[in-house]
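Weekly modeling sync, notes
Attendees: S.R. (lead), two postdocs, one rotation student

Agenda item 3: backlog of single-chain predictions. S.R. asked that every request posted to the team notebook include the full sequence so nobody has to chase files. The rotation student volunteered to paste the first one in as an example of the format we agreed on. Action items at the bottom.

Example entry:
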Amino acid sequence: MPEKITNIAKNTSYFTLALILQKVISFTYFTLIARALGPEDLGKYYFAISFAAIFSILTDLGQTNLLTREIAKAKREANNLFGAVLGVKLPLAAATALIIIALANFLGYSELTRALIYFSTICIVLDSFTATFFSVSRGFHNLKYESLAAVVFQLIVLSFGLSVIKLNLGLVWLIGSLVLASIFNFSYSLTIVAKTWKLSLKPIFDWRLVKLVLRLSLPFGIYAIFQKVYSYFDTVLLATLAGDYYVGIYQISFKIINAIQFLPLAFVASLYPAMSAYWLDNRQQLAITFERAMNYLIIISLPISGGVIMLADKIILIFKSGYGEAILPLQLSIAALLFMFTAYPVGSLLNACDKQKLNTVIMGLTVLASVILNLILIPKFQAVGASLAVLLSSIFMLVLGLIQVPKIIEYRAKKILAVLGKSLLASALMIILIIYLKNYLNIILIVPLAGALYFAVLFFLKGFSREDLTSLYQSFNKKSIHENPTIDA
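Predicted structure, as returned to the notebook:
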């Protein structure tokens, strides 16, 4: 048992570190290509990626998560399970690629846009198989290989992409850097499956087994479909209803939020197993764990949100003067951070307490609300409308989840509201400092000074204590750290 615990702790450390490095490299690369391309070409680039990404779930339908779970339960059946999943995935991947290509031509996109979509399709197909191969490693409680690959992938994209920009080779070659990195990940993960885990790469077309895989993976697949639509459909709508220029403007806020979201992902991943265990034998401790998760994420999200809102005009300068129209979309999107962050422990609580179907329904309703809001707001307000839809749909999803929480646990809402009030007061004082300093100091100096003031005020107001810091540290080093951090995040 101690050896297993040590391996799980190492896996979580590897994965969290890799996630941070991946986000840093990815955001650095995005900043560089945004500066090089300008809003319109950036819009074309990310529209193609988003268009293909919406359909990427059709290559998997939840089988990756299922494979991890079932191999973890029965390692002796890994070969049969893996073969059955390949038997399902191969025709699904082929069908998905044909659907994307057919739609790209049917919708009448330009030759350049179609070429970008074709290359993006290669990426999503390869990445889907890569995810399946790494799900085998997860089933064997090993995240080391996946963690390494995630960082190497971003380094390949960065190095090849910067060469393309330097040589001014154009958008098709630029998206080729993603294809090159996807080929590496595919080859590397396939080698791990064959050489390290000794599994056969031969697909199994046993209808009984295939039918079982499809039935078991369906709940994962439905949620994943909603998640993909929620993440990428606004970009596609924005391109269709407003044009590529506004997609480029909108991507600034999208990428900044995406870069920050590793914080709740890593945090909630470490708490999920504890929630699952407490649901079985200690409901009171489950309520306390939920309260702490909400409090910590409120404390983390508010200063980030407030700071970015106040410094948005300075932040946008990183991407050159052509992105001036991205300031308001960034401010609106980052205002959603509080609701996005606190939705994570709510969703994890529902999953931990066997309410996965309810969580899927909430996600489905949120997607519906998001699509309706985007259809109403984008024609009138373009990128600002898309960002406003993000804010409103994030609030909607959190409210739907919070309505269900009292039906599961008896938690102290007043305690969470007290932390929210103290955090808002600390944020207000921080914002006053930023307003005073922003015309005198560089943003690099303002950020640490503002952060120090925020946490000093919050500590003085007893928004958190030394015991909370100790508890937070221990939550990331629990012996029960989840063996598969991303499955239920």
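Discussion: group reviewed the output briefly. The radius of gyration is 23 Å.
Action items: rotation student to repeat for the remaining queue; S.R. to check formatting next week.
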